[in-house]
Amino acid sequence: MKSKKSTSALLLIGGGADAVDVRYASGFSAPDPFLFVRRGEEDFLLVSALEMGRALKLGPAISCVTPDALELPPNARRDLGRQAAAFLEKMGCKKALVSPRCPIGVVRRMEKSGLRVKVLKDPVFAERAVKDPAEIRALRQAQRATAHAMKTAMGLIAGAEIGGDGDLILDGAPLTSERVRYLVSVGLLEKQFHAEEIIVAGGDQGTDPHERGTGPLRAGELIVLDIFPRSEVTGYWGDMTRTVIRGRPSAAQRKQYRTVLAAQKAALARVAPGVTGAEIHQTVCDVFAEAGYETDRVDGVPQGFIHSTGHGVGLEIHEGPSVSPAGGPLQAGQVITIEPGLYYPGVGGVRIEDTVVVTEEGCSLLATCPKRFVL
Amino acid sequence: MKSKKSTSALLLIGGGADAVDVRYASGFSAPDPFLFVRRGEEDFLLVSALEMGRALKLGPAISCVTPDALELPPNARRDLGRQAAAFLEKMGCKKALVSPRCPIGVVRRMEKSGLRVKVLKDPVFAERAVKDPAEIRALRQAQRATAHAMKTAMGLIAGAEIGGDGDLILDGAPLTSERVRYLVSVGLLEKQFHAEEIIVAGGDQGTDPHERGTGPLRAGELIVLDIFPRSEVTGYWGDMTRTVIRGRPSAAQRKQYRTVLAAQKAALARVAPGVTGAEIHQTVCDVFAEAGYETDRVDGVPQGFIHSTGHGVGLEIHEGPSVSPAGGPLQAGQVITIEPGLYYPGVGGVRIEDTVVVTEEGCSLLATCPKRFVL
Known about the structure:
Two copies of one chain form a homodimer.
Chain A: E1 8-14, H1 19-26, E2 34-39, E3 42-46, H2 49-56, E4 62-65, H3 80-90, E5 95-98, H4 104-112, E6 116-119, H5 133-159, E7 161-162, E8 168-170, E9 173-174, H6 177-190, E10 193-194, E11 199-202, E12 222-227, E13 230-231, E14 240-245, H7 251-270, H8 277-290, E15 296-298, E16 301-303, E17 310-312, E18 319-323, E19 335-338, E20 341-344, E21 348-351, E22 354-358, E23 363-365
Parallel strand pairs in A: 1-5, 3-4, 5-6
Antiparallel strand pairs in A: 1-2, 2-3, 7-8, 8-9, 10-13, 11-12, 12-14, 15-16, 17-18, 19-22, 20-21, 22-23
Helix pairs in contact in A: 3-4, 5-6, 7-8
């Protein structure tokens, strides 16, 4: 306890800037911001009296303290910076290590109280990128729920009739993006998964990868279905995309779909420990280039392959490692998406995405879902 | 443009630390972090090419720029601090004003690039606390959806049978906290509202104000129903709590309910411009004290009136002004909750909450919902 180490402590803000890191390190999350402190092998949670009951259930490995014990003046009791300074002083720490996500207001307050603050690099817990067996189980459960939801979405589109004007009709009413999103969300909710941002984007809406989609779905249009729910129990995410069409695709739509599918297959085949995210991304670019698809900007609007190939999935929907030009070597146990896409206004958007775990030999899908194109 | 003012600019992080402030100032939100800059009367959004289409729809009042235009080296293109430094330099600004929520990593990077950084006080936009007519409409719509959801929850509990062991049974299956939460969420989803944290907490679960509740609901137990959904269209929240009981309440339960109801009435009657949040909170404390209810800690667990009387509601579920010992004078147009509660293990929890807008004369409920206790 007299070692040099003991005069500095890692300080993270749970329920706020560092919510996910704190959940990872402690298993604890709460709606309002609170402090997590790690000094050497000792972990502490500074939580309000309201959270104490839940915090104590974590067991003896984490010491739980309420800020009341710090004897701060009443106007400073809810000030995380003052709490941190008072607690670290009590512990004999002179230096706080914080994540780059720590709010500047908290840092300035700590510095004013005489603490030195060192900013760590992101990610604070690099080990988060490699999942342990319990995390893989949670991710697999999430991805299975996602696949089930995807089949629901596909079933709705497949079961719709095509109206005289080309709009899809289900049970006498137009099948809209909103309606598919609602019905898919309900199925997920029943399994205790939340999906606020499901994408059901038809036609040119699907050429903007962040457009969620609105209005009636139509025959002959590419429909991008991107579902990424989070388990309210475990906090882990699933992530899957399929692209479908109702009715007869044009030659351009068919070629674009086949090319993205081939790119995804090629990328999945490359995934293995030691292979870099950059190499996998390049594999996708090569398939697209060979098929004659170019990425550029037309009237300021980007088109072609306009995002990266994939990202890590865990307690955050987007986390390390990156499968992009900046992506380093993969490791076994990492969980990543492989989601190439092509977007051309006038034709539509195609994206096909699966989430895989990197294995010693290559990779393995966390859940399967048919890649049906023409419904 | 050569004024002193033009050498400093407000810099906020949308989609991240300052997401809500940026949505308030610009009307724009996006899933990934981006920069918002205000210099004098000019507003700028620095958004990725993917978001450009949506950003341009905001109209000519906001200039939209992609970080590509900043000619950063490839490894710095996604670095918000580098983007900010490069953009402000291009604008001739030497000083960035940031919110206290700005991540320290971004601040350090800007400072390294030679910018001076001044940290503003929270809230950056104090005017957010006073709602304009469009905001009141959005909040009223949210609160109406909340009231409708509350009636659904009450109807489920009222419609349940009481099984031999006291468990509530609906349509042959136990009526659990999870089932009520699911059915209420589905109704909200249909109206495009998300409610991830609905509380349906019976018996001693209800004595922890942050416990969401699990397992079968039972006759003779106080059940706290706290519903706070967010509109996926407007981004505004509703917030309402009722406490109910199925079957016959004990004398202690009945007295506790009546006392909280009286406290809420007394607090609502005090709300008016110029009255402080502290005074309203004290009104609640006085009612509880007169009825003999004490707030203290038993075996480390707080009991009695263990939270503040209310908070502002808007684009955040908890925002200014505060209705607590720290609360200042209210203003017309502010939207606040009034939610006294009493929590005693062995008896249960009672909380009654409405959301009101402060008017010139007093206050007005944003939506009504019966206060039925015995169902």
